[in-house]
Amino acid sequence: MEKSESAVKISFVYVIIGSLWIILSDKLIDMLQLSDAITVNASKGLFYVLSTAVILYFWVKRLKKALTESEERYRAIVEHSPEPVAVHRDGKIVFINPAGAKIVGASSPEEVIGLPIVTMIHPEFIDRVMERVRQVVVEGKSTVPVEQKIVRLDGQVVDVEVRSVPIKYLGKSAVQLLCKDITERKQAERKLEEQEQAYMSLVDHNPDAIFRLDLEGYFLNANPATSKITGFQLDDLLHQPFKELIMTDDREKVCAIFKEAVNGESNSIEIAIRHESGLPIDLNLKMVPIVIHGKIQGVYGIAKDITNRKRTEELLIKSEKLSVVGQLAAGVAHEIRNPLTSLRGFVQLFQAKEDMNQEYLKIMLSELDRINDIVSEFLVIAKPQAMSFEVRDVRQIYYEVFSLLETQATLSNVQIHADIADDIPMINCQQNQLKQVFINILKNAIESMTSGGNIHIEMKVVDRHIMVRFIDNGCGISEERMLMLGEPFYTTKEKGTGLGLMVCHKIIEAHGGSLHIESQLDKGTTVDLILPIEEIGILQEA
């Protein structure tokens, strides 16, 4: 701008002086009557040239001095700038300030002058740098600040922010680099990123469910374990209310600790949630407030699946009950057997007398023996017994049980329909114990139909096992009660003890089989007895 103003001043002054010279010199010649003297006119022109030359000289000298002072001021600013500044032309560095020399690891700018610019650019950024150089040189446009890496003379990599600007250096086009060392900032960013990755790794690979809720209790995020524990996909959980997963009985408790977390308190409770399959899952849930800049922005939920632990605790309780029942059963069996022995002895004495009705005495002995067998089964609860297994026909066992319960079924208006296959093989079993299992299951089926109904019995061979299926259309059992079946003292009957089904389980397990129960409330119950037949061939050969 100063150069333009100076040029205008020189031109303006030159015109004024030239015009005045011509006008005044012509008047002077006329006054002296020297118009015919050519030499005088030539002298006038020569004098004019010399005069204007002197004037221009002083003007140019003044302008050069101002320009030099301006360049020196600019150079001083660049030289003492704390930010690195460099100029490159034709791919080589032609100027660099001390700050620039320092950032590339040089002791002075002279060490860097003349070096190719590409030797200081990290290989990952060479293509991008060349594209920016083309933009500056060809298009004459400055670039926006960009982040890149440079390689110091000692091989160390440094993070910088660079802006390229087109300039004239010593009368030729060049590119000026304005740099800023951002190594510390990048290191801080990388450290922060590593911390975030470590945190995300802790969350993503945690076996416990970790999820984030907004202040209204809706899912914002969740880790993979949340999906694994609940059975729901993460996309199905996002933006859904957490309370919808909680079993109805526990919702009030969860709402209470959620409000406490929103108010800045952390608490934990044990709850049950609904799995995607519909089954309940026991959780230990802790809720923690999310505080950002001193303000609570949401709540973290941390849930641990304790279903197996709860089942183990229940098994321990059940085992303790069994221990008590076993001790009670052993004592009762012992006390009952003593009078039974006496009664049987007296009956046998009566048999020796001819005047006694032998048929009645025979029935009494048979019933006493049956009572003794039933008492012996109490010991199954107390401890494992060395049972005497014999090869028996399961069909015959069923027919004998049916004959016992047919009258009770008829009185209860219950019809029993049997579908028994002809190819049922003999099995190795304890006959009286299997009878007890059949009696318990059939009695339960009859008693479940207070207004009458039907019982269907199927017996067939499935995968080298005998399956006996009992199907009734009685009152059924609810899902909650199904989980408790088989426990001592747990029963759905008003006067029951809860021991019958438990004994059935132990008898079937002692035979190497299994017992399965399926039931729906108000629709009926299906009981499957599975008995193995693997050893029959060996027994038959023996």
Write up this protein:
By secondary structure, the protein is an alpha+beta fold. The protein contains 15 helices and 17 strands. It has helices spanning 2-32, 38-79, 98-103, 126-139, 183-204, 224-230, 234-237, 251-262, 307-351, 358-382, 394-411, 431-447, 479-482, 500-510, 536-541, and strands spanning 85-89, 92-96, 146-151, 157-169, 172-181, 209-213, 219-222, 267-274, 280-292, 295-305, 390-392, 414-420, 427-429, 453-462, 465-472, 514-520, 524-532. The strands form four sheets. Strands 2-1-5-4-3 form a five-stranded antiparallel β-sheet. A five-stranded antiparallel β-sheet has the order 7-6-10-9-8, sandwiched between helices. Helix 1 (2-32) packs antiparallel against helix 2 (38-79). 18% of the residues are buried. Residues 494-498 and 535-542 have low confidence and may be disordered.
